[in-house]
Amino acid sequence: MADTGDSDIGGTSPDDVQLRFREDEPVGHAAVTVDAFLDQSNANAVRVEPGDDARELIPHLQRIALVEVNFPAFGDGRGYSSARILREAGYAGELRAVGDVLVDQLAYMRRCGFDAFAPDAALDPNDVEAALARWPHVYQEAADARQPIWAERHA
Amino acid sequence: MYLYDQYDQAMVDARVEEFRDQARRRLEGKLSEDQFKPLRLMNGLYLQLHAYMLRVAIPYGTLNGRQMRALADIAETYDRGYGHFTTRQNIQYNWIKLEDAADILADLAEVEMHAIQTSGNCIRNISSDHFAGAAADELVDPRPYAELLRQWSSFHPEFSYLPRKFKIAVIASETDRAAMKLHDIGIRIVSNSEGEPGAAFYVGGGMGRTPMIAPCIREFVPLDRLVTYAEACLRVYNRYGRRDNKYKARIKILVHELGAEEYTRQVEEEFAHLLEQGVEPPIAELDRIRTYFADPDFEDGPKSVDRSDPDFALWVERNTVRHKHDAYVSAVISLKPVGGIPGDASAEQMRLMADLAERYSFDELRVMHTQNIVLPHVRIADLHALWSALDEAGLGAPNLDTIEDIIACPGLDYCSLANARSIPVAQRISERFAAKGRTAELGELKLKISGCINACGHHHAGHIGILGVDRKGVENYQLLLGGSEAQDTALAKITGPGFDEDGIVDAVETAAEVYLREREDGERFLDTYRRIGMTPFKEALYG
Ligand code: SF4
User: Fold this and answer.
1) Helix (H, G, I), strand (E, B) or coil at B76
2) CB atoms within 10 A of CB A154
3) Is B281–A150 a contact, with Cβ atoms under 8 angstroms apart?
4) Is A2 part of any domain?
5) Interface pTM (ipTM) of the complex?
């Protein structure tokens, strides 16, 4: 993790991002906590912890360019809901999964709207490629552009 | 029954390849056991006391002869020649090698089967009424709704790392044969005052160490909003279910701690939001699924049997159930031979059941949560031939819903969480009652045994329940009375201090004697218990 010189901030820097599925310039500074974000009107990068309510950010989505969703442990799935909720609310900025992000969760994270990944431990590029190409179809509507099987069946 | 189209098949095939890759990375050391564990669990692979156990999904308990034969082949090729049908309407193999697991999944995929989400903190295999499509009292066949939810819940991107496992049951009759209110979500298909079908949602039931009966949180969800409502229920749970303590992580604790009203309020809010998101499949999809569950071509025929053979007559009396067509019955194949292991079947027996299903039941079998097998649509005219074949193979025990029809979890013989053995206790009880010829006299008496507080043997829901506990390093058994998983769902109560293995068999007999002494006309054990209460039983047991 890059040293941001601010002990209150636990965000990742663009250098920590291993995978990014966006064309725009990444935010060059670290994210602040949800509480700090709600207190200060100029921040544009925020970090959501598993216990945070992502809906608190909804009134401010216009000015956010980066949301980091932290996965302290990969088995804690709250971040999947946070991500989808933000996308459902129309958030179009970068949605970055950080922390204990593993290759076997990547495909589901993409479906929930994550478009950048900063895993604690770097992922094997071959495994990443296989994981992202794994599912020929999907059963559900989610936060990505994929058509559910039911839509293909009744096209 | 449901058949895969190219999409379903492609998804199951992809899953096999995914697992093959994961197992390889595990064996190469690229995945730690901690990282691998949830992945293998979501493919039904547990590490037990002696080996891996593989739990294969049998969606809503329905399978055909070809699938049953594939299960027999797996038992022979990869296990010790038998399998174990479970209270989740699934089958488990207890002696599996990790290196074989991907090949087994590939074999299953060839017959449209899998082990997807039969374990782990995700939405599990969906269960249903084992008499679905045959029961005289159902509003509709509940299985199309279960299939719709199966597809929705398979590989769900948001709900694969829930606080804890999540079980859903779907029924469509007043009589509850699936213990619906003891599930995380129980759904009953109902019709509203305009006669339109919809779904009543019961959320937050469960067994385990804190048994709870699910409250109804919405009496009517229109069928074109079923998936959306389920999604709302799950999202509230995924966000707010407890993750600090695995014993408090089931949705029943969330519903209990928030109160059903507050939980419902949050679900309704989420539901209103999700309705805007277009997550619901079109009704045409439900219609498509429904076509697979159309009635077979029932034919008129004789409506009664010749009962001159008393053994046959007893089996017909005990093990057949009224069908919606009066020339048919549903016939139950008991996997509870006296002294046997409840729910076990050999490969040979599975093949015979497959043959008989093809010959006599439109190629359909069902797994009951009571660990028996149903042939759902048998012509009354064929009953004698069916019974003769079963009897010859040792599958003709006439003991459905009797004290011999015991539900028992694997217990300390296999399970690493167990405090005590369940199987030998079940064997001894069935032997005791059979030897004394008291089974028939006792009538309906549902006995359920769990080897620990996790309650896989549903002991809370037994008319008589037995719970294995550890007492200073010695196996000890608590006795419970008065539970029910039927429409009159009730949780059993502990009688008092526990017993050792001999003592618990005697204690069950004592409780049965109290019932025989006290019963009034037509009362089942449960009815007598409800009328006279715990005291007379306590006096007899401990007095
Ligand atoms: S009830 Fe306990 S002993 Fe029995 S199978 Fe479940 S976890 Fe194992």
Assistant:
1) helix
2) 13
3) yes
4) no
5) 0.94
